[in-house]
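In the current project phase, we have settled on a layout for protein records. A sample record is reproduced below.
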Amino acid sequence: MDPRVIVFFLVTANMLSWELMVMGACANCVNGELTVKELTNARIEYVKQQILKKLRLSRRPAVAVPVNSLPMPVAEGQTLSAGADKPPEFDDYYGRTEQKIIFPVEGECLTTGRYPFICLQFELPPDVEPEEVTVVELWFYKERDPLDEYNQTFVISEAAHWDSQQQFKKTKPIAIKETDVGEGWVRVELAWAVRVWLEGMERLHTLHVACRTCQLRRAPLSFHEKHRPFLVLYTKYAGKRRRGRTLECGATTSECCREPLYVSFRELGWDDWIIRPAGYHAYFCKGSCAPISAVSQADSYHHNIIRKYFYSVSNDRKAEFKPCCAPTTFSSLQLLYMDSNNTVTQKTLPNMVVESCGCM
């Protein structure tokens, strides 16, 4: 047998050993002295560490803005994206950014206007490339105006400012939105403008939002805690979960099967920075396995490696092979969370849900 195959198998086994222990269960993989509660705690701790690692965090973020004070569309998951299949360049370990939610603050404008207006200041995230951005939406909560019996027209412009070369940039319209909303949320598409800003490496921006048909002296935009405006950047990385078929564990099931394991972020004390979901079903594998000869007949990438190694060793060492019930396929977890910069991010974390189990 090619020694490189043996080395690869041993390295792969070492990398998967902890994962197999906590997400799979059999005599070979788990210390028989662990209680069910201890093993469950170990699995949940493993899930916690995987989430932090895939988000490239060493510890949970320190969040200054309470999650329960977020605008209703964000808190209720209305901004969550669901898009195309996983792109081929996707890194199968770290999470991929699917959306960023930015909360502008009310700021001063360098110029005034003839219509009631308001200025929104914000900073674009540094970790999003212009070619990744597919949709950008400005959400604002429109308050009532005496002229709401007619459609209202909002003009969104890039506010006048001084750029990095100390050149004065005039106010430039980038979107016009006509709405029949009397009171409620209004969305305005700004993708092309934001992509231009990202290409120009300019992160600090101010939006001038004017209502050309309103009667009030100030643009009817709410800054109430639950109604404050926000900007959503959607990227091309939007995945749909694919679920495989597997044997689910039951009261009388003894063979290798998938057992429920629900991870509650509230019970972990993480509900102050993870917005959605409230928790998720991670699952794990348990049960008995057939002899190694049956495993060596299975058809999968890892089983092919086991088969080559199994038939290369002497007969007395073959008895040492005892198959373990372990995960064979995983799916992703979609997470909406608040980071230390008080920016809401949506990421898809790969390999977080056990979809099927098998003997390895």
In short: Residues 3-23 form the longest helix (21 residues). DSSP finds seven helices and 18 strands in the chain.
